[in-house]
Amino acid sequence: MQLLDFLTIIIFSLIILVAGLSFGKQGGDMKSFFSAGGAVPWSISGLSLFMSFFSAGTFVVWGSIAYEWGLVAITIQMAMCISGFLIGAYLAGRWKQTGALTVASYLTQRFGKTTQQYYTFIFLLLSLGYTGAFLYPVAKILNVVTGFDIYYSILLLGAMIMIYTAVGGLWAVVITDVLQFVILTAAVLIVLPLSLDKVGGLHQFIQDAPDTFFHVFNGEYTPWFILAFIGYNTIFIGGNWAYVQRYTSVKDTLSAKKVGFLFGILYLISPLIWMLPPMIYRVVNPELVGLETEGAYLRMCMDVLPVGMLGLMLGGMIFATASSVNTSLNLAAAVLTNDIYQAIFPDSGQVVLMRVARTATLLFGLGTIGVAFMVPLAGGIVEVVLSIGAVTGGALYGPAIWGLFSRRQTGRSILVVTGISLLVNLYFKFLSPLLFSISLDRATEMLLGVFLPLALLGAYEIYALKRNRESNQYQSYVNRKKPTAKELAATLTSGEKQNNFGIKVLGWAFVAIGALLFVLGIGASAGDRYMFAMGACILMMGGTMIYLSRRRSAGYTINKTEQNIHD
């Protein structure tokens, strides 16, 4: 990397930080801080969901698989689009209908406080593992490209993420996610043609690739694994407490469904574009082994991107991968504040609750940094992400999703299902190999993790149906007090004002990024026409959003003036 690359990273980081910190005065209450006012545009929420999930190691986890196994990395990711469509059709709207701020709040309303406390404890414990695993690839990217020590990278990046998440809340998270989506889409559309040029074109790449490189299924990634992966992702994306925020923070049920459908569409299109660079690098340099393969994506970028553009790509990768971290930090703070602290101190005012929320974000962030330090000792990011998901995903999130549809499940029944599932999965993961030398392959491990809790939930459903039992907790949930039409209207009005501010921030950030691309294109040794084209597109988007925000602000002012005159 050269000086211009470092300057580009600094400038891009400042754009992201300013955008995130600008929402400090917008998140003045719990609903603003944890659900962005409850009326986020579905397109922004959908892009944020995509980036939050997409960035959880796409460049490191799936990039490593793409380098080692080839086309199967695209197969794995395209399976996620099926999950997105299923969530849009059946789950996202149901979550919005609950009216809950967090999944923990829903569990309290539907299954009781005791059940919620057990799940909250398990969720927060596992979230440390997930979030630490997501922070590690951010630091890995910086380590591979700059040579900066991996542990110092974790400390530096963890601190930056904690600061703007603690200040700006969910709006800071979703806006920075959208910025990352735009810049990374632009960057990868520059990387891809330059990568193909380096290996002599698409035909030469196909000819020089390993024999099994273009098999739809390869190695341990079998058809059974893909089937289990679809089931796992449907449960994980549809029930993970952090991702559920994206369905509950939009204005209505239809918007929530659109969030899921947009996620599915993006995963139908994006895998081929994103996974080709590390696949091409296998032909450029087939010598990577072990944990070195986690850096394949970055090494391809380093080989082909012009000076300055490498810095922009690196900055985009860092903050995109970080979006999974900031999502989890915001959600963990929501649970700690809304469902633990406020339950103990119900008379706390908004000022105190906001102070607790920001403190909780920082404390959970420190725990995340500690976990990230231990990822290399666990065998690398691929092993950590897939193993945690296989063992815990279905057991933790499946029962809550089932409860959205069932009249018969009780707090006790879902806790028993979660407990049995976790014990069985942990036994086969750790004890069985140690005691009897019996290990499950990747596909069987994930199939067990996904379908065992579903089978147990189904068995209880049949048992309760035969005895004509309906949960008393369900009746209490159905009869709970719901917001009035006036309260919903007030929420939407407040949310619309925040939406307009978010659009304005996005517009100015796009203008800054578009201008940066133009400047970098002037001195580029290769790919300058791509950079000018992307810069022009982003500038036009930014200008359009600024114009729209001004029109909406003028309309809001006129409506408010007319209302005051009428009153």
From TrEMBL:
One term under GO cellular component: plasma membrane
Keywords per UniProt: Cell membrane, Glycoprotein, Ion transport, Membrane, Sodium, Sodium transport, Transmembrane, Transmembrane helix, Transport
Swiss-Prot/TrEMBL catalytic activity: iodide(out) + 2 Na(+)(out) = iodide(in) + 2 Na(+)(in)
Membrane topology: Multi-pass membrane protein
UniProt keyword Membrane present: yes
Alphabetical GO biological process terms: inorganic ion transmembrane transport; sodium ion transport
InterPro entries, alphabetized: Na/Glc_symporter_sf, Na/solute_symporter, Na/solute_symporter_CS, Sodium:Solute_Symporter_SSF
Subcellular location: Cell membrane
Residues spanning the membrane: 6-23, 44-65, 71-92, 118-138, 150-171, 178-196, 224-244, 256-276, 296-320, 360-378, 384-405, 414-440, 446-465, 505-524, 530-548
Pfam families (alphabetical): SSF
A molecular function GO annotation: monoatomic ion transmembrane transporter activity
Primary localization: membrane
Ranges in a coiled coil: none
Family: Belongs to the sodium:solute symporter (SSF) (TC 2.A.21) family.
PANTHER family linked to this entry: LD47995P-RELATED, SODIUM-COUPLED MONOCARBOXYLATE TRANSPORTER
Protein name: Transporter, SSS family
